[in-house]
Every structure is written in structure tokens, then in C-alpha cells.
Write a structure and sequence with these properties.
Oligomer: single chain
Shape: flat
Strand content: 5-15%
Number of strands: 10
Structural class: alpha+beta
Strand order of the largest sheet: 2-3-1-6
Radius of gyration: 34 Å
Length: 720
Amino acid sequence: MFKRLAPALRGRVTRRAIVHSPYTWNATAAVFVIFSISDFVVTFTVGGMHTERLIPLATCIGAVGIALFATRPPEPGSPWTHAVVFAVYGGVSAAVFAHAPQGSAPMITGIYIPVLAALWITDRRLVAAHLTVASALLLAASLSGGNETATLVAALCFIPSCVMLGICCIAVLDAVDAQGDALDALALRDPLTGLGNRRAYDEELSAELARHRSSGRPLAIVDLSIRRFDDLIDHVGPAAGDAVLAAVARALVQVAPTGSTVARLEGDRFAVILPGTDRPSAEEYAAVVNETLPSHAGRHPIELLAGTAAYPSDGERRLALQSTATARRGEAEDAHAGPSTLRPDAVADPDDAPARPWAVVLGDLEPVAAPANMPRRVTRENLAVDPLVWRAVSAGFLVYAIVGVVAKQLVADLASSEIYYVAGVAALLGLVNLLTRPPRINTVRNHMVVSAGYLLPLAAMLSAAPKLSWVIGTALLAPLLTAVRVIDRRAILAHLLALTALALAVAIAGIPDEAGMVGIVALLANTWVLTVSMTVVFEAAERQSAEISGLVLRDPLTGTGNRDLIRQHALEIRPRHRDLQLPFSVIEVDAVGFDDILHGAGRGRANQVLRELARAITEVAGPRATVARVSGSTFRVLLPFTETEDLAPFEEELRIAVAGVSTDHHPLGARVGMAEFPRDGDDTAELERLAGSRRAADDPAAHDLRDALAVLAELHGPRR
């Protein structure tokens, strides 16, 4: 079943995607239709009901469900979404009135009120307004139409749970929205410069052309590349080449007028969209950018070659404009086809050696920073330990305990004295949860908390029998606990089947009255629908979270982590290592001679070498370690539960592994630096800096000499 539903939320997961999912919309419509059918069944099977109220109600609710099936879902926040949400709690309130005197029977169907309000309405204040109006209508319906006191008590029990469920849904959906926005930003952004990528450029150019066709205004694009960029790399190295690309990106953004789009298409190619600009102004823009850039990187000049095209004179379609601009850039490149002129006064050493990457001066220009403050990953592991969700659940148990005691005091015939025992257990569980940390998923305590979400309500029903419909609302958190705190589908199914079997056992035993029977059936149907729906959403959000993690925390070339992954893992393990007074080590490894491979064998072979280095270092580090490529040919390893004094064999294996990647004509050596927590520092950045400085001070030639002496000693040692 899950496999059929999950494809409805493939791709980007946001409120809008969930709302526009066929499953979500059809499930909402089905709830109205099922409720309508149930009302018709109750009308003609249960005696003493107000048929003059139930038949019109069932007809109206069924008509709403059919209308939803026949229409497309509205946009979140639109007026129609407010109408749908109002229809949900308006229908529930009308049902409470129509089922009088046993209006507590259909109240559990209001479980969708907070879920749909949080889903369809983006403004929190409006969500609060809807929940307030829903609470008022439920109380009004409970006090009117000849309802029993039990209905009012059921409303007092249901409303706090409804609010808590709404808070949890808002927190989750806001995090999902932020995660979806982050995925869009990552998918449309160049990771090196922070500019848009080709996809972003193509989408924005198509949109701008559509706007300019309707307005008749001019539009210009500029296609740029760095003159003889490969020669620049040869002279300043790949690290400085990346800094030059970032400097060009910064200059393009600084000079571009407001409303422009700047993108890095590939390599050293950039493109700029200039709305409301003609071709001469676009050429002037390119000239100003050239003036803004530093004149040289090391000994190599920095110069941009530009080609421009304007709408509509050079074309009215995106591809035509881009082709014209690219052709004109090619003409400019042909006009500057001569050899690159090196600046003699910037020679790095008397032997005319290439300038070192760290000797390149780029003026005040810094690389364009990537967006910071990435949202927390939306996973059930994170939600299970989220303080807000945990406190809401804990408060729910306390509210149930208070309501049970108050109800017994106010209306003595609603429950036996056994309700005190159930309330005491609920209060104890709520207090324990509030005073302790939330359990992690897949622990015994976690399954006990999930089970308590439906075992306590079932115990309350037994103690309140036969008029037990007023306590059915205490099971409102059962689907939330099951969907959030259980990952394995088989475990989810086991909890749902346990709830179903126990609730049906209560019903089959003849313990509840007619209203209780209706309430139990409504509870089971709604719990199954809501739990499955929430599971589909969580699984889709976790797929999206994994994609973001791959974009944010992984090096796309080698598949290892990046600098952020090392820091994240260090932050995660540091509290545990500090509490247990255990060390962990940060090791930095740099492949000496990699620049020779890059210049001698080309970028393709150099990239292959980096991938081989990543595999070799990962194999040596082992499964417990975190391996990341932090820049160029520099890798960083995080080893938990290790001291640097015990890492001599590991260091030797690293050197052997790096040397094993060497080619015949381009041998590799290794510089290794280490730092230990907490001996060398408590801050992750300080440990990284120290490991980097020790790596820079390491001399692989000394290790080569030591190895040679060791071999000679072995060859000339005493024979046995």
C-alpha cells in the first residue's frame, strides 16, 4: 500500500506539494464521503437519533466530498483553502449538534482540523484563528441541541489535544518548507561561487523573455569567459584558479544592476541576464567588470572575453539569443588568440617557476559565500528528539489526566472510580516524560511511549463504560506518535493492528453504548488514514533530506564528505566524548605532487587520481571514521575514540595508500598532520587549524629517507 501512495510525493516536498498531491486531496474528499455514509448508516440503524438533523447533514457533507473529488486542490493560503478548513470543523460541529444527545460520538473526526489547517494555511496567526473558531463552534454545539454533559466533557478533552496536534503539525510543515526551499537553492546554485547554475539561468531567461514580450522592453544577455583560463591554472595552480573564479563572480554581482541574474554555466563560463538593457549597455557592463577585476593572478593576467545579444534585435527565443552571444564571445576569443602575456615583475622565483597558489593576490575580492544557516534535516530521528514535539506529547498526557479527574468530580455518572487510576498513570507518564530526555527511535522505551498513546485511552474507555465516547478524544495523539516515533513500516503496522484489535475487542464485548460504538469505528478509520498519510509525508521529507545532505555535505567529485560534514560529525560526537572523557583525532592528509599530475596529465586524470585517493584513504580509515575532501588534494579524517600517540601505524598506512595511487611519471607523497580532542583543544575549528599547520610542516622527504634507512638496515642486518 505504501509503495502505491509514496510516488504521490516524489520530488520537492513542501506544503504546496503535499496539498497538490492527488493522494492528499482525494483522501480529504474521501473523509467527507465516508463520514456522510456513516451518518446515513447511523440514522437508519440507531434508534432515538434526530433524523431531521442527520439526513440533511449527511447530504451536505457527501456533496462537499463529491465536489472535492471533482475539483483541483487550491493553492495554500488562497480563499478556497479557508473554505475547506471551515468545512471540516463546521461539519464536525454540525455533527456534534445533529447526534445529540450523544454528540461526543462523532467528535473524533475533528482529528483532521489541526492537520488541514496547518497544511493549507501558511500564516500561523490565521491557523490560530481557525483553531479558535473551531473550538468555539465545538463548545457551542456541545452545549446545544439537547446534548448530554458527556459531550461537553468530550469537547474539553478534545480541544487541548487538537491545539497540541496543530502545534506539532505547524512545526513539522514549516521545517519541510524550509528544507524544500534549501533544496531548490542547492539545485539552482553553483557551489563554488554561489551564483546560479545553468538550470537557474535557463529558467530565469525563459521567464524574463515572457515578461519582456508582453511589455515590449529590451533585454540583453552577456556570455563571458576568462581568457586562457587553462594557462592561468598552469601558472597559479587549481586552488588559486578557484579563487579567480570566485573573484570574477563577485565582480559580476557587484557591477550588475538590480534585478539581473548572474550564473556560472560551466568551468570559466559565466552568463548575465540584464532586464531592460540594450546591447551597447550590455557591452559597457562587460567593460566595467573587466576594470573591476584584479589585473593579474600571480604572473598571469585576468581578462574576460564577452559576447552580447539583445532581445528582440538578435532573436526572440532563448536558444537564439544564447547562440548569438556565444558566437560573439568566440569572435572575441579569436581576436585575442595570441600567447598570454606574463607580467615579468611578478615572477615568484629566479628559476621562473610557476607562482604558488597561496602567493596569488586578488585584492579585496573574496569568494561569494554560499547561503548559510541550512535548515535542520526533517527526519523522524530528529523529530523524535525535538523538544517542542516531545513537550507537546508529554503535556497531552497531563491534560488527559486533569480532564479525567475533573470530569469525574463534575459528573459522577460518567465513569467509575477506576478512572482515577488511569488518570494517575497518565499524569505519572506525562511528568516522567517532561523531566527526561525523549527516547530515540528503535528503543524499547520509545515503543512503550507509542503504545501508551493508545493503551491509556483504551483503559480510560473501559473505566468509563458504557458511556465511553467522551474519552475517545484522548486517542488523538496515537496517530502522531505512531507516524513520528516509528520508522519501520512493519512496526507501524503492528501498532495500528494492536490498536485495532484492542478497540474492536472492546466493541465486540458489548461494553460501549451506541455512541461509543460509533466513536470507536470513527477512531479506527481516522487513525489509519491519518497515520498512513503522515508516514507518506515523512518518508518523502526524509528522501528530500537525504538529497540535501548529499548536496550540502558531500564532495561531488569523490563522493566523500566535505568540510561541513566533518564539522557536523565533530559537533555530534563531542558531547559524548567529553562526558566519557574519551579522545578523538582529526587527521589532515595532503597528496604531494598532485599539481604535477594536474599539469602533466590533465584535469581528467587528476580527477581520477582524487577519486582513487578518496577510496584509498577511506579503506585505511575504516568504517568508524568520517572522511572528507576539504580542498584540492587535501583530505581530512575524523577518528572517534583514538589518541594521536596511537596512530603511528595508521599514519604509515596513509602514506603507503597515497603512494599507491602514484602514476609511473608522477609519484605522490603524503603530508600528514594530526590534532587530538581534548588535549589539543575543545573547539573543532581549532583542531582543524592545528592539524592543518602540522600537515603543512610535515616533510615527506624525511619520511622517504627514514623508509630508505629502514630498508637498508633490514637488507644488511644480521642473517639467521
